[in-house]
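Team,

Forwarding the record for the chain on the shared tracking sheet. I've put the sequence and predicted structure together so nobody has to dig through attachments.
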Amino acid sequence: MAGLEEPRMGTMRSSMKTNVLLAKSELGKPKPSTFADPNDKRIFGAPNIRDPEGARDVTMVWKEHAPNPDDKPGPDFRKMNRKAATMGLTSATDQHGHRAMNYETIKTGHAVKAKAPKVPSDTNVEHTYGIPSTHVPLEVYRVTGDPANVRNLIQNSYANDWINANMEKEAAARGSPKTKGGICLTRAAEGHAFGAHTKYIVPSDDGEPFKMTKFKGVPSKVSTRRT
């Protein structure tokens, strides 16, 4: 009973090594293992079986499709129907018997990789594709104008030119007299405007202002400055 405390009072059982409730840890040491047959190769739970083809092989290795060598070509219905029509077989029963006796398959062939066409640079090393930047033809210059300067592009000079041009345009617009466009009024709008003007803005002075009967004999204490 090695591993148990000595001396011990009571019954000594062999299950004390495997029962987790009875196993006691020694001073300064971790609790002893309670497995009956500890083995380094033993796996507890589901074993982690690795796939021989991992994520790296799936994502980094490209595999082309390999056709099945035992795969047979499908039936050529167009060819069989053409032969049946030539022989005068038009019913479904005649077609079935004709296809069983004269079975045709689709012709298959091997893919042939064509050679790449030759380009002028294959024979002439100094051949240039497109228009060289050192020489601009007159026809192109008439359309595009002067070529852009790389230094001006990097220093953002064209943006500054655009800002200055817009500032000059705005200053010229401020200096010119502004003309207000009149609003075209309809006859109905003119009538409403005239009525509002005569009623509220320039009231008529004809007649005495309205005053209640009981206040007509009372002198006013506040001057309204009306004539």
